[in-house]
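ingest -> fold -> write
write: protein_1
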Amino acid sequence: MNDTVDKLVIFLAKRDGIDKLVKTFQYVSKLVNWQVETTHPDLANRFKQWEVSSGLSRKAFRTGRFLTGFNGLRRNPGATPTFKFLAVLANAGEMVYFFFDHFLWLSRIGTLDAKLAKRMSFISAFGESFGYIFFIVSDLIIMKQGVEAERKLIALQEEEEENSKDAKEKIRKIRGDRVMRLMAVAANVADLIIAAAEIEPNPFCNHPLSLGISGLVSAWAGWYRNWPS
């Protein structure tokens, strides 16, 4: 119990930890609002206000977040040219997303002209979608390489018993990395659906159930990835 509390404290001390918690509030309130909209209008309105305030607070809390894209580009200096290229595209899209998200927030709270909100939302969502596509591609390629490396290690284990301990440790690391990348892919696909709802509104992406579930998948996948080990 104490260990869980300690991990929760560490998790909530991170900017991403707070963001995932508030994102959970945002999309749970969206789902509740949709569910009770016709039967309990007053209650639905309260949850709608909670959803809007959660979304705006997340935008305020992400101030300056676009600068983390530069750090993302420096993370793997030894990466192959292909992965460097994918990293540049992915982080560039994410930086556009977070940068224009500042103006979207300011227009929605009335600091800037409210008419700018729609344009800023489109640019921000387009950059988000662009970046997520390349993050997903990168993770899928790395996962494929991991599967191939794991198969070779399993074959090595069967052939050379003296290398089995080392091979087991490498396999464990590959599988652990695969789980984290699966969580990243799930979160990015979910966020891509949410962004698509802004870029090109459609019945599927814009449905409250689709948005609510996508938001929770993204939040909880991020929660899993950021939870202290």
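write: protein_2
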Amino acid sequence: MCLIVFAYKYHPDYKLILTANRDEFFPRPTRAMQFWAEQPELLAGQDLEQGGTWLGMNRNGRFSALTNHRNGRIKAQGKQSRGFLALDFINSNLSCTDFIKATELPAYDGFNQLIDDGHSLYYLSNRSEQPAQIQPGIHGLSNALLNTPWPKSDSRKSALKQVIDSGEINAEQLIQLMENKDQYPDHLLPDTGISQDWERKLSSSFIQMENYGTRATTVILQKYDGQTEILEQNYDHSGAIERKRFMLQLPASSA
């Protein structure tokens, strides 16, 4: 993923309200979100080039999502594919804190990860000094650290709050929320060590370039009783293509 905005224990009915865009080169082979034949309890998309995922969930309620941490001033580091971080967590029985202790952070290039073991939600990154347990509220994660005030993150957080506070929440609204293509003035853009032209093009929530752009928007609506709706809209260079919807009954969570 490249942009995730989510409300955690902010709404009286929903433990997690999340909407996220995955940005990637269009030629990179991808399998859309589905239950994996080789792991039938796992619901996730798959990067067919490396084999990992950017967002996934298990029927037992374990969840993880990833974004890259962007820094064009340093060479790529680490030999392990970041997509396996999400798989490793979802497929394990480790608590969030034990997984964090067991993860070899230097083995990966810069990443941000959300992990939920069914009891608590944590954020970890190998570009942050320490992991953090997510507190109730509305949060944003792009290609910098959690809640870094990038324009598109702040814009979509505000839009998510408006949707939630309106009292009418549905997955379609949250797909549309992430379709914003506004680019921001140069003085508001982050300086991540890439060209100013690329900073502009990557500043929009929804990216649409010739060879690179938003490949999927994924929505998760998870109630405290475990009833969960997941909607994924996929895209190619020409626009929207297949859409997939899943209804899961996960273990209940305490408010």
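write: annotation protein_2
The chain has a mean pLDDT of 96.
Residues 3-249 form a domain with the Penicillin V Acylase; Chain A fold (CATH 3.60.60.10).
pipeline exit 0
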